[in-house]
Amino acid sequence: MSNQPLFDYSQLPAKRATRDNPLRGKSILSVAQFDKEIIEYLFGRTREMREMVQRVGTVNLLRQYVAACIFYEPSTRTSSSFIGAMERLGGRTIPITSGVEFSSVSKGETLADTMQVLEQYADVIVLRHHEIGAAKMAAEYTHVPIINAGDGAGEHPTQALLDLFTIQDELGSLDGLKVAMVGDLRYGRTVHSLTKLLLQYNVKLRFVSPEILRLPLNVMNQVIDAGVDVRETHDVADVIENADVLYVTRVQKERFTDLRQYEEVKNFYEITPELMKRAQEKMVVMHPLPRVGEIHYAVDSDPRAAYFRQVKNGMFVRMALLAAVLGQA
Ligand code: CP
After folding, report:
1. Interval 138-172: pLDDT, tens
2. I need a labelling partner for 49 at 20 to 30 A (CA). Which of 57, 75, 161, 315 fits?
């Protein structure tokens, strides 16, 4: 194989080479790490990654790097987009994504030991875990960057970043928007992370959920402290006409201790073509996916359905993040 890069990075805008990289060597654990300046930096790199993929498909930017991707919970998008991101950038992966039951976790190996083993092989570790705070704990035991790919009902920072990128990409701005979040706001970690990121912008927030799935108090208190215009409702009809973004989420069955409660709320919402008739022409419908009935398949052909474009953006954002933490952005 040739050592020549497939893509000449010198052809990209000059600002790329002169900007400091604020994420070099950093673990990505929470959206709290991202202020507007870092977000702008990351989204600039993300647009470059998208342009690169569209023009040449792959480059050798991370040719000398290996990422370990270990997922203690199921995933399609996050795992495959991180692996795809490394592949597009010429890097390699150690994928432990099809079930940690096939790793020594099943023999009782602790997270701390598993992380200290993987850092012997990899330059960065992408971790999904069922416990809140697991990524933070992992970062305390390792010397390579940890990327939080979702920690239980806690945070999903890379999802929130790709969500934010998608909103900006679809609507041109993050300021002046009314964002309605619908569904499982209690357990939906993507909602928690995206809400916190949006507090940095001039937005209005609407939270739509059944009573038992309301936004956790600690997140709502952050919203209130930020002085954001916020309302809660149980009825999506209250928000559909004025929302710029309808961010729909799945009811997270796996987080319920009482499955009878899940049964009561699992079909609480469905976004249908009829409902979409009442929405603004430029509204976008987003969903972190997977969906299990919250958005009717007939909505997919509506140009306002942005969830598959959102999925695609996920790989570009993760390419930018990997390149940044590995000091190659
Ligand atoms: N949005 C998301 O995290 O999807 P996966 O669970 O498939 O990774």
Report:
1. 999 999 999 999 998 889 999 999 999 999 999 99
2. 75
- In this prediction, what percent of the chain has a pLDDT beyond 70? 94
Distance 3 CA to ligand 1 centre (A): 34
Check if 158 is active-site: no
What's the predicted TM-score (pTM) here?
A: 0.92
- Rounded to whole angstroms, the Cα distance separating 309 from 306 reads 5
* Euclidean distance between the first and the last CA atom of the chain, given in angstroms as a whole number: 23
* CATH number reported for the structural domain that contains residue 316 in this entry: 3.40.50.1370
Give the number of the atom of ligand 1 that is nearest the alpha carbon of residue 156.
Answer: 3
- What is the 28 CA–ligand 1 centroid distance (Å)? 17
- Can you tell me which atom of ligand 1 is nearest the CA of 80? 8
- Distance (Å, rounded) from C-alpha 234 to C-alpha 182? 9
Verify that 173 and 305 share a domain, yes or no: yes
DSSP summary character for residue 105: G
Per residue in 27-43, pLDDT (tens digit) is 999 999 999 999 999 99
Average pLDDT over residues 237-249: 97
Q: Which among 77, 186, 250, 266 is annotated as catalytic?
A: 77
- Within a 10 A sphere around the Cβ of 121, how many other Cβ atoms? 11
User: 326: which DSSP letter?
Assistant: T
Claim to verify: residue 304 and residue 223 sit in the same structural domain: yes
Residues 264 and 179 in one domain: yes
Q: What is the mean pLDDT of the chain?
A: 92
288 CA closest ligand 1 atom index:
1
Look at 134 and 255; give whichever has higher pLDDT.
134
Total domains in the fold of the chain: 2
